[in-house]
Design brief:
The protein has about 200 residues and is an all-alpha fold. The protein has nine helices and no strands. About 80% of the residues lie in helices and about 0% in strands.
Length: about 200
């Protein structure tokens, strides 16, 4: 990994960087706050209207990227236009990720016949066994990541990322990798059972 991409992942929003964004929006702090709220609302709508599941998260990421670039010395004359440009680039990243997910889903085998209660119990036992094999830190992270429903789950994930000290996107990647390890474990267990 090159140092610039490492720096991007390690970068966290600071008060100074946020203040710099506000100063670019308007020299008057109160008007800058109002303009920030308007910009934030428009960015959320931008992601929402394009079918993104987590428009607030993508808005946060857009603003963080803008703040990072400003703190790195990027010269920006029209902050709103610049933020929309960053949002468009982030949307392209999101769409590429969706394409990768769709391709992965298409490679999955077709669903099998419905399981009876014994099969469901066996699958649950395999899952719990594989979950127990994970290091406790990974096990706690994956269980916490999927806790809750709808809005509660979103808030829970934001809090979890904050607790871990990583951006939400990095949390998604980390839990995706843990989930892949779980799936591999379950497949291995299933293959052992079939070969008996």
């Amino acid at each position: 990994m090159d140092t610039s991409s490492s720096r991007k992942k390690d970068w966290k929003l600071t008060q100074e960087a946020f203040d710099l964004l506000l100063a670019h929006l308007d020299p008057d702090r109160d008007r800058a706050g109002e303009k920030y709220l308007i910009l934030r609302l428009k960015l959320e709508r931008y992601f929402e209207w394009r079918g993104c599941l987590y428009p607030e998260d993508h808005t946060d990421e857009t603003i963080n990227r803008v703040c990072r670039r400003l703190s790195e010395g990027e010269v920006v004359t029209d902050i709103a236009s610049y933020a929309y440009g960053v949002a468009r680039m982030l949307l392209l990243e999101i769409l590429k990720e969706r394409q990768r997910e769709r391709a992965a889903l298409e490679q999955l085998p077709p669903p099998s016949e419905p399981e009876d209660e014994t099969q469901q119990q066996s699958r649950l036992e395999r899952f719990e066994s594989c979950l127990a094999e994970l290091p406790s830190e990974d096990r706690n992270l994956i269980v916490s990541y999927y806790r809750g429903e709808k809005r509660e789950k979103i808030e829970n994930r934001k809090q979890l990322a904050e607790t871990e000290g990583i951006p939400l996107n990095a949390l998604r990647i980390r839990t995706h990798r843990i989930r892949e390890r779980l799936e591999q474990c379950i497949k291995k267990t299933l293959n052992r059972l079939r070969s008996k």
